[in-house]
């Protein structure tokens, strides 16, 4: 998941691009029993409805997690007792207490899933300020191992196909992958502005909230902070070990499999102890995947991509104000950090300011992703923020502009 590194887990929009393919018609041989599950997709993160015992709620759907994880509060409510608790290191600089909750039966939508060993960790506490909603867990590899999972971002539906009868006849891009320490890894190349092509191992990570997130060892080995400038450093979210930070930069290009993507991608280069790497060099994230109808076929170690028509309009923050949510209802939107020299900084927005309204609309009628979208809007635009600071209300116009 984006920035959430569970045990043996690699986890975290921008101008549209294509793999140089024409529009194609979906052509799949499907069984009559194929199941359809709705999902929520907000702020480049997918959530599915899950029921575990008496508990129902949303779980993050994540190809970058190689197990099912139950949040500690939910596990306690279910009477699950975690054993072998240890401090797990992940994307952040710190660690997170993680244990083995044993076997559990649950349902994703109406589809049953039996897990021999579920992890238990306080993941909601870590993620809720950044997600702006409460989750009860993460659905990872065990779910994908049982189905060919078709992810239709346009309709926000999953279609589960039987691996034994699934047959694809379309002209989508087929990307074979290998499992490396339980994670799906495809080969690619990072194309730099100086013409260099750097081979890299891409972990297919639906939970990564970006086009591409590059691990710290690869960034250091290839001096990417120098070769890919200019950059802007911002948080993106949090994971095991706390908040994660990246230096964001535009890519000259990215090759995935045998097909070259266009030039308008944005990569996050790991800084400040984020994403220390392992058996991969970068995460191929939801910002990339959402441009396609995606077939994730773990049983046959293949991913198939069909370009969406039209490609979704995506964006990157154009304000320089990074927001988090707090409060029981997560409707208290706080400016967590302001990039020096950014539009928000020039307008006088400060860390700790509470946003009360966006262009006159009360934030209690919005979610954090709505506010982020407003601050990422393209074109010449001024967004007026009503802020509360030290008991005073301030009206601050922020003139948006591209940061990178």
From TrEMBL:
InterPro entries per the record? Aspartic_peptidase_AS, PDZ, PDZ_6, PDZ_sf, Peptidase_aspartic_dom_sf
| Domain PDZ, residue spans | 320-390
A Gene Ontology MF term for this entry?
Answer: aspartic-type endopeptidase activity
A single Gene Ontology biological process assigned to it is: proteolysis
> What name appears for this protein in its UniProt entry?
PDZ domain-containing protein
